Amino acid sequence: MQLDHILHPLGMNSFWYWRRLLKQFGPVSPGLRHRAILINLFSPLTAGLRLQDRLIYGRRIAKTAITRDPLFILGHWRTGTTHLHNVLAHDPQFGFVTTLHTQAPGLCITGRPIMKPILKFFMPAQRPMDNMALDPDLPQEEDFAVCNECPHAYYIGLYFPNHVRALFHKWVLFENVSDEEKEEWSRAYKHVIQKATFIAKGKQLVLKNPPNTARALELLELFPNAKFVHIYRNPYAVFKSTMRLAHAFRRWMALQDIGEEQLEINVLHYFREMMTRYLAIRDKIPAGQLTELRYEDLEQRPVEELARVYRELSVPGWETAREPIEAYLASQADYQKNTFTMLEADIAKVEAHWQFAIDAWGYERPAVARG
What we know:
By secondary structure, this protein is mostly helical.
């Protein structure tokens, strides 16, 4: 099935909310109006399921206690955050936010028997940017759930890319955010975590969400005992892979046109701003609540590196987690990563914008591809 015909995430959420976003961030580009038409058609059909979810579970979710603050995976897009999330999700002590929850947060409990097969039908079996498995029950980034219920989320910019730069600075870097707006964001974010905790029957959550890399201090305001593992990767590879991701999101979700040149400008800008912020705040995270992980080390010696993460963060249960984690790693042995050709122009762009990260983590200049 072509990406252009996949059900848009906003089609599984409130029609009122969709109209609010359209008024605030629209209009939809003429060549992409078919997506808006599908949202208009499908969203009202799910209103009953959302009402049912709210009436049956609303109060119970609001009262759900988070007895153990989450373990947050930090890292820029395409640094191995999804792989690490999938690995840690196989530890039976952890719960996580599912793809179904993020795509249809308002009806993911009572609506599950209906929506799961619908979502599975429209959803590709593999992610378009890297061929990793995609399924309604697999772990997913909680910010997708936030942006499908609250306008204070950077990922709304994936739908409305004309506003993506402003959304990034406001909801990733928290620039020019009023107290009222921050409180609304906090409520929306905590609600997603409470609902995921309720669905996971009270388990501690392991969460992966790249925007959190720049806002760990804001998360500590909500969850003072949270633990963080930051995974990083060769910036040269991150650039090429993130460009592929940006193209995939444009084909999959965008309701507004965005050009190739602007995509590249955004990718270079976001990494620089996000990782500069992370490097500035990481020493403010309390001792014992942050560890770092090199993606290449996780690839080469995963069991040893994961054991170190558990040890340095004082996360219990490694001996119980080790067997299911090793079984999952064995099941991924044949997975083939994307490979990229690095041209001199690519290398020059990375070094012009991201040299600070190359220096911080000690990566070497790659070989230049010859024509």
